[in-house]
Structure formats: C-alpha cells, structure tokens
Amino acid sequence: MSAKTIVAASLLAAGTLTTAAPAQAAVETPQSVCGNGFRVVKDGVRAIKDRQGAELGKVFLLYNRRNGYNCAVTFRTLFDVDHAKVLMGATLTVQTTTPPLTSSKTTSGVYSRHTKPVKLFARGLCVKYSGTIQSPASRWEGKGGRDKWGNCGR
Q1: Which CATH number goes with the domain that contains 117?
Q2: Buried b / exposed e across 59-93, counting CB within 10 Å, b at 16+?
Q3: Is residue 137 part of a domain?
Q4: pTM higher than 0.90
Q5: If pLDDT is split at 50, 70 and 90, which confidence band does 82 have?
Q6: Is residue 23 a part of any domain in this protein?
Q7: Looking at per-residue confidence, does 79 or 32 come out higher?
Q8: Is 19 inside a domain boundary?
Q9: Does 64 reside within a domain?
Q10: Most buried among 16, 62, 86, 147, by the most CB within 10 A?
C-alpha cells in the first residue's frame, strides 16, 4: 500500500476525510425560466384548477423593464411523481395599438415541471395570460389565468 492510501484510509476511519457532496439540482423558478431581468408582476400569479377545484399548478406573468417584454410560463404542482410528463400550455396575449389589435403567443407540449416561456413585447400595453395542465390520464384539464386586460404599463 502506498503512503497516500494509508493516510487516506486512516483519515477516512477517523471521520476527517469526506467525499464531495453531490451538487444539489438548481430549483427552477419563473424568473430563471424567463431569463435575466424578468420579475413577477402585481397580479402575476394565478392558480390552475380542475373542475373539482383541485390546484394543479400556477401560471405566472413576468415583465422585464429593460426590454419591455412580458413572459408567461406554467408550472405544475400536482402529478409530480417520478417527474411524469403531462400536457401543459401557456398563452400570452397583448392588446396592440394597430390592427388586429391583439397579438397572442402560445406554447404547448408534454413537460415534467413547466412549459417553455412565452414572450411578447408589451411596454405600455395591456396583457392577458393563461395556463393549462392536463391530468396524466388525459381525463380532464385544469385552466387558470386572467381573462381581463391588465398590467397596462401606465
């Protein structure tokens, strides 16, 4: 046995040699998904509930003051067993000043934790946002969001 092996073995036996702990997985937040500079706005969190009123997740509305963009993203809180993937969506609609007077963008797909972010320029403009989450068995869907114009930047 080499001298290094003997020293390491004795330190380990004495409890003074430790192995590096595995890095903790970064916790994703709406801010980290939307990117630098985005912050959740007032009235920017809405529950996504099924027909029976059970909360499946939340849809978030964020704004970036530097570039004037809004961002919507859906996070789920239920059905997160073994990171099973479910159908989820997020929609952002901006009230524009030129015809057709609205601009809308949606993302939809099968995700384990959250949707991709949806971003639209909205400086000084009103927005609506919504999210959907389908049950794993696809028997029903939860919906939530704000269907009235708000966060108009005035």
Answers
A1: 2.60.40
A2: bbbbbbeeeebbbbbbbbebbeeeeeebbbbbbbb
A3: yes
A4: no
A5: low
A6: no
A7: 32
A8: no
A9: yes
A10: 62
